[in-house]
Amino acid sequence: MSELSKREKIFLTLSRKQTGYIPVIPSATSFAITNSPYGAECRKDSQKFAEAMVSARRYFGYDALWAGLFQGVTSCMGQGLEDKNGKISQSGDGTIQKPEDLKKLRPFNIEKCVQLHFIKENIRLLKQEEPEEPIIAIMDNPSMVASALMDGGNYYYHLVHNPAFVHELTEMVFEPLTLCAQEIIAAGADILWLPLPTIGGTCISRQHYQEFCMPYNKRFNQKIIQAGGKLIIHTCGNWNDRFDLVTTEGAHCLHIAEADLGMLKKTYGNTTALMSQIPSVFTMMLADPKQVFAQSLADCLAAAEGGGFILSPDCGMPGKTPAENIKAMVAAAKEAERILAGKC
Ligand SMILES: [Zn+2]
């Protein structure tokens, strides 16, 4: 199947089809920035950002380009308000402490959303530089934005003490986020990758997840797919008590951590593609290349047969991950392709 382009191979993988190719996609935004001579300047300059993403991808030989993290709804709606420490907020985090604060939220104006313009410009430059590579944009979903505006601890408190408050805020950010997701996809992002650390089993109960997150997740995911985007949900932390729920929410792929990969493949492999879970810190950053190779190969052999599998570390790849460890991960995918003889 060598006639398939890289984009086609990755799209087919997300549709759980066999291509003979195992994509290797580390979540590498911070990694690429850390390894760029421009460093933090990349976060404000699209040209430098795109250069960092492209050169890291080429040098280390992994797949796909990251367009950056979009948190513009939180900042546009909460910016300028007082946060929980009494400081005027830039990010919008922690600005909604009590129900009365909802009235202070700024109406979302898409034209004035600086972060949206930045990520769209990143996408334009990335597409220009490497049209063959799929582009992945990172963004928060409605529950993640509500919890950021309320501040995590306060969000958790109100799940118990004032459900209506949490629902009202989640609903208020829903439409602005949908507009932004549609704009980001229209600008050329192929895949949206939604990291959900705050609402996993490490943080909230299954019952709260069902009541406060799932209905919004399903609606939001549907909007993304209707807009033509591919969707990867990053189940950050321990989600073992709710994979049966999140696999019904419409995502093409789950990027997992702390899970039994083989079991997930058996149980959900017919409905959801899987992106794997090489420990980012203890293996990618701290182990030697042999260990990275062994763990990567084990992940591939647990879940790549039949297609629908992407090899990846379990969370953001640390900036100080050694080059030879990344090369070992990429080499393991090649070795697994050989062992599986095209059945991946
Ligand atoms: Zn994570």
Give the amount of beta strand, in percent: 5-15%
* Strands, count: 7
Largest sheet properties: 7 strands, parallel
Low-confidence stretches: none
Task: Count every helix, treating DSSP H or I runs of 4 or more residues as helices.
Answer: 14
CATH class: Alpha Beta
The CATH architecture assignment turns out to be Alpha-Beta Barrel
Estimate percent helicity: 40-55%
Can you list the strand order of the major beta sheet? 1-2-3-4-5-6-7
The ordered H/E elements are HHHEHHEHHHEHEHEHEHHEH
Shape: globular
Structural class: alpha/beta
Bound molecules: zinc ion
The CATH topology name reads: TIM Barrel
Q: For the CA atoms, what is the radius of gyration?
A: 20 Å
End-to-end span in angstroms?
12 Å
Molecular structure report:
- This protein has 344 residues and is α/β, with parallel strands linked by helices.
- The chain has one domain (6-340): Alpha-Beta Barrel (TIM Barrel).
- Helices cover 49% and strands 8% of the residues.
- Helix 10 links the parallel strand 4 and strand 5 (253-255).
- Helix 6 (142-150) crosses helix 7 (152-161) and helix 6 packs across helix 8 (163-186).
- Zinc ion (ZN) binds at residues 195, 197, 234, 236, 257, 315.
Chart the SSEs and their pairings.
Elements (H helix, E strand, L loop, with lengths): L5 H9 L14 H6 L11 H15 L4 E6 L1 H7 L35 H16 L5 E5 L2 H9 L1 H10 L1 H24 L4 E5 L10 H21 L3 E5 L8 H4 L6 E3 L5 H8 L4 E3 L4 H6 L3 H15 L5 E2 L12 H18 L4
Parallel strand pairs: 1-2, 2-3, 3-4, 4-5, 5-6, 6-7
Helix pairs in contact: 3-5, 6-7, 6-8, 8-9, 13-14
The protein binds zinc ion.
Zinc ion binds next to loops.
